[in-house]
Write a structure and sequence with these properties.
Layout lengths: L8 H19 L18 H19 L5 H41 L1
Helix pairs in contact: 2-3
Length: 111
């Protein structure tokens, strides 16, 4: 266990189910003409979120979470994780992908 704080299994399962439904919806390309198309950009945050959540998130949870502040800490931490993931996407992933695309095309022309 991460901490001594108890969580309702059904609420956690429901949140995970809802997030998986949104991911499936996005993967199936149903967001193009949908009222949910603004949610599709959350899909690009999954990899940076995956990279940072275990290291940073668990460290903070272990040190600061308790029964009296669990909702505040989890909400704040979730918002911060999404902000960090967005910053990583905008400041690192996009510029790096453009650089790699440009240089790999040049390299392929040489070969």
């Amino acid at each position: 266990r991460l901490s001594s704080v108890d969580y309702n299994f059904f609420i956690v399962a429901l949140i995970i189910l809802i997030l998986n439904i949104f991911m499936l919806y996005s993967v199936l390309k149903k967001t193009h003409n949908s009222p949910f198309k603004h949610i599709a950009w959350l899909g690009v945050l999954t990899y940076p979120l995956y990279l940072i959540h275990s290291g940073l998130g668990i460290l903070i949870l272990k040190d600061y979470i308790n029964e009296s502040n669990k909702f505040i800490i989890l909400t704040t931490l979730s918002c911060l994780m999404f902000c960090f993931a967005y910053a990583i996407h905008k400041l690192i992933e996009i510029p790096l992908s453009l650089y790699l695309k440009r240089n790999l095309r040049a390299l392929l022309k040489i070969v």
